[in-house]
Amino acid sequence: MSSRSSQLDNILAAGLHLLDSGQPAQELDLKSLLSSRIAKFYSVLGKDRPVVAHDTVEDIQLETAQCALEVVHCVQKLLDADAHGNTSQGDAKFQEGALENALVIGTRDLTELRTMLSMVFRWGIDPLLARVMLAWPAKPSPHAATTIIDLTSTPADYRTLSSFLRCLMSMLFPCGVQSSVPQTLITTTILNRHMSELLKASMTLGWLPKSLSSEDTPTVDSLRPSALRLLEFLPLSQVMTDLGALLSSMPPPPAHVRRLCSSILSKNLLRPGGVRALYAAVFGEEEGPENPQLEKYEHSGLILKSVPAGMKPEEYFAIIVPQLIALLSENVPATHRRAASFTISRMLDSEFSHRTLVSSLALPMIHDPIMRVLKVPLEDRSLVSLAPITPSRALSALTILLLNTDPSPVFVTLILSPVVHALYALMFHLDRVKASNPVLKESVKGLLATWGRVVERQEGVDTLWSVLQSDWMYWEVDTTGEIKRTAADPNRREKFALLTPEDLRKGEETGEMDKNFLDIYPDPAHLVQYLKSLHRSDIASELFIRLLEIYRLSRDDQEINPMRVLLYLQVVIQMQTQLSDNSSSTSILNKPEHILSFVKHALESPVTATTNTTPKKAEHPRGLGLGDLRIVRQEEDDLVKGGDSDDEEPDAVTGNQGEDDMTGTAVNLLLATLEANPTLSAWNAPILSDIVSLLEPFSNDVSESVRALTREARMVVTARLASTSTSWSAPPTKGEESPQEIYQKALKLLQDPILPVRAHGLLLLRQLVSSRPRASGTSSTEAALAPAIMSIFMQSVQDDDSYIFLNAVQGLSAMVDTFGKEVLGNLLEAYTRNVTTIHAGGLSKQEVDTKVRVGEALGQVIRRCGDALSVCADNIVPRLISVFRSSHAPTVLRTSAISLLAECVKTSLVAVLGYTNDLSIGMIDLLQVEMVPISQLPSREDKAEKTKTEKPREKEALDSEPTAVDFSLPPLRRAALHFWTLLLQQLTHAVYDGERVEAPFLGRAKITLGYIASTDEDGIVRVMAREANEAINQLNKAMLGM
C-alpha cells in the first residue's frame, strides 16, 4: 500500500509541474513556458521526453493535455485498484488496517486533478475535434468567408483524438463496458463537468457515417457501447441537460450527431418521467430565485410539440399528455407547473395541427373526474406511474392550468365550458353546507367567475342554458376534505307538498321563508345570484329573453314537465327582482337590443297577433254563437242573455288570458327598458319604430290593462323621439324658464310611469302652447315644437283616464287658438278621416272614441272663436256636414257632428248663415227618413217593461257599441231636433234685431215636426218636436212683427 501511496504522490507531484503557477513567467512566452513545464514533468517521472516537432502553441498545448491525461489516468488507476483491494479482502482486521493506509486525495490535489481534466478537454479533445470536423464537407454558406484548411494533419489529429477518448473510456470502464464505473472523485468530475464534451466527441467518432469515414479516419465502433452505457448511469434530467448542451455547443456538432442526440432525447422523453426530466434539465430540479425567461418555456414547449420521426402522433401524445397533466400539481416546482401549463396551452391552440388529438386526450383526463361518477381500479390504469386523478386533483389541475397561462378567452372557454354545470352544482352544494372548506369554495367560485367574465356571449348563454336543463348533480365531502361525485343524495327527500300552515308559522317565527320550497334544481335565486356576480349584462339579457320565449312556447306544450315550466317562471321572476336595478352593471335592461328584439317578436308572433281581432269579439265571440242557433222567440233569448255576467264565455276569457299576459309582459319590458335607458329612442334604436307600429292594434285590445300599457308605451316613445329630435340654438333666458326648458321638462314628465306626473307634463305642454296671445305671434321655436306637441296630445286623447284625455282635449283647443288654421285642419282631418267613405263601418271602438274626443276639442275651439268663427267657418262646417250625411258612419259620430253644427249656430249665426238652407233641409230629410213611428198600441205591461228597458237599451247601444251603424236610435233624432230648436231660436233673435231672414223651409218643417210629435216611438223625441214647433211659431210671429 505504501508503494501505491508513493506512486500517487509522485504522479501528483509531476502533474503539479504542469500547473506550475507560482513561478513568474514574465520573461518567457507561453510556448516556452509550457515546454519548460513539460520538461519538468518528465524529469520528475524519470522519463525521457518524446521528440515531437512543436511548430505552434496549439501543438505544445496538445502535448500538455496528453501529459495531464496521463496524470489523471494514473491517479484513477491507483484509486480504483485501492478501492477494489480494500473490498476484496474478507478479514475484518485486515480491512481495518487497510482503511488506515488507504489512498487519500486532499482538497488541493482534487483541485489539481480538476484543472488537468479541464486541460485535457480544452487543449486536447475540443481542438482536435474541431480540426477533424473542418476536414469533413459541409453545406456551403453564401456569407461565409473563404478559408484555407490544412488537411495534411487530419489523420494524425484523428488518431490522437481516438486515443484520448479510448483512454477516458478505459478510465470510466476499467473492467469492461458491462461493469460499474469507479466510485472516485475523478469519475464524478468527468460525469458532472465534462459529460457533454465527452459525448460529443464519442458520438462524432463512434457513429461516423460511411460517407465521412476512410482508412485514415475510420469509425471508432468501440466508443458506441461505452457512450450508451454512460447514458444509462446518468439520471434522466442529466441526460437531457448534457444532450441539450451538446446540441447548443459551438462549433455545432455534425449532422449525424444531431440526429443521434435527437433520437436519444426522444427515447428518454418517452420514458416514465421523461417530461419532468426535461423540465429539470431546462429549469433545474429546485425552485430558482428568478423566473426563467420566456424563451425557455417556448423551447421546451417546442420540443414536446414535435412528434418524433417514424412515430404516430396518437402514440406520442398518448404518452406525453398524461405526464403533462400529472405535473399540474402542488408537489412539483412552480417552474415545472408553469412550463406544463404553457405547453398544454400551446398544444390546445387553434394553430397547432394536432390540437384535436391533444384535446381529446387532455380534457377528458381533467373533466371526467368532475363530470362522472367513476370508480377505476388500479389495474385498469393505462399508466401505472401516474396516480389516479380525483375530483380534488382535477380542480387543482384546472386552477393551476388557468393561473399559469395567458388569459385567453378561447383557452379558458375550452377548458371550463364542458364542466360549468358540474362546477355550478359543486358550488351550490358548498354554499348549502355551512361547514364547507372555504378554500375549496373560493377555488370553485373563482373558476366559475373566470369563465363567466371571459366567455363569449352566445356560448355563455348556451352553457348557462345547459345548467338550467341539467339534472341534479350530487356531491359530498368526506372527513379528509376530499370531494367526490355520488349518484344520489341520501339525505335529500322529495318535496311534493306546497307550503303548509306549519311552514308558514315557522317562517313567521324565524323571519326566513324558503323561496325554493319545492327543492327545484337549479335553485332560481342561487343561479341568478351567480349570474349577477358575473357582471355580464349581455349574457343576462339574452338568457332572460330566451327564458321568456321558452316560457311563452311551453304554455302550448301539453307534454312538457310542469316543474320545468315552474323553474323557468321562477328564474324569470328572480331575474326581474335581482337584475332590474338600473344602477347595477348586470341589469338586464342595460342591453336594450335583446329586450327590444323580444318585444318585437312577441308583438308580431302568431300567438299575440290574434289580439288584433279582439275588438270584434263583442259582436262575434266565436265561430257559432247563440244567434246562429236561435230557434226560440226573442223573449226567451233575452232570458238567456239576462243570465249572470260572470258565466259569459268562460272559454274565451280563459283562452285570451295567456295571450294578454304575454302581451302585457312584452309592453312592460318595453316600458322598463325605456325607463332604464333615458337616451334610448327611435334615432339610436330604429327597431322602436317597428314596435310602435306593432303596438297600434293593441291600443284597441279588449283587455283594459293591455290597452293602458300600450298607450303609455306609445306616449313614452313619442315623447322620447320628440325630446331627442329637437336641437336648440337659442341661448337660455334669465329669470324665467324658456320654452325649450319647459318642453324638455314636460317630455321628461310624460315618460314617468306615475299617472299624475304624466298629467302634469300635459298641463305644462298646454300652458306652453297657450301662454302667448295670438296677436303677438309665435316664435320659430314654438312653431318647430307644434307637430311634436300635437302628436303627444293626439296620443293622450286615447287615454282611458279622464284627467289625461281632458288635458289633451284642452291642449288641442289651445293649439288651435295659438297656431291657427294649420292645427285646426289637422284636427278636422283626424275627425273626418275614413268617416265619409264606405270603410266608415269598419272603424274600431277606440278610433270612434278618439274621434269623439277630438270632436270635444273642436267644440271648445268653436266656443273660443265666438264672433270670429266666420274666419274658419268654411273649413269647419263643410267637414261636419259631410260627416252627418255619411250613411256608413257610426251613429255616435253623426250625432257628434250634428252637435258641433249646433254649437256653431249657437256661437255665431252669421258664420253659418250661408249654410242655413242646406242644413235645415238636411235635418228635415234626416228626421223624415230616420223617424221610427209607433207600430202598435202597447199594453200596460208592455209600457211598464218598455219604461224599464228603454234607457238601458239606449245606453248600451251608445256606450257598449259605439261603432254601431243604427239610424233608428233616438239620440240621432234628438240631436237633429236640438239643432233645429237652436237654429230657430237664433233666427228669431236675428229678426228681433232687425235683420232680414228668409225661411222657405218652415212649412215643410212644421208638417214634419207635427207628425213626429204625434207618432215617434221615443217620448223625448216627441217632446223635442213639440218644442221645435213652438220655435217655428215664435219665428213666424217675429217675421210678422207680432
Structure explained in plain terms:
By secondary structure, this protein is mostly helical. Helix content is 65%, strand content 1%. It is built from 45 helices and two strands. Strands 1-2 form a two-stranded antiparallel ribbon. A hairpin with a 5-residue loop joins β1 (474-477) and β2. The chain is rod-shaped. It starts with a helix and ends with a helix.
Query: What are the segments in which pLDDT stays under 50 over at least 5 consecutive residues?
Result: 90-95, 140-149, 376-386, 606-655
Mind telling me the C-alpha Rg? 53 Å
Assembly form of the protein = single chain
Q: What topology, given as strand order, has the largest sheet? A: 1-2
- Average pLDDT level: 77
Q: What is the distance, rounded to the nearest whole angstrom, between the alpha carbons of the first and last residues? A: 175 Å
Give the fraction of residues assigned to helices.
55-70%
- Output the number of helix runs: 45
The biggest sheet amounts to:
2 strands, antiparallel
Counting helices, strands and paired strands, the structural category is mainly alpha
Percentage beta strand: under 5%
Q: What coarse outline follows from CA principal-axis ratios?
A: rod-shaped
Strand tally, please?
2
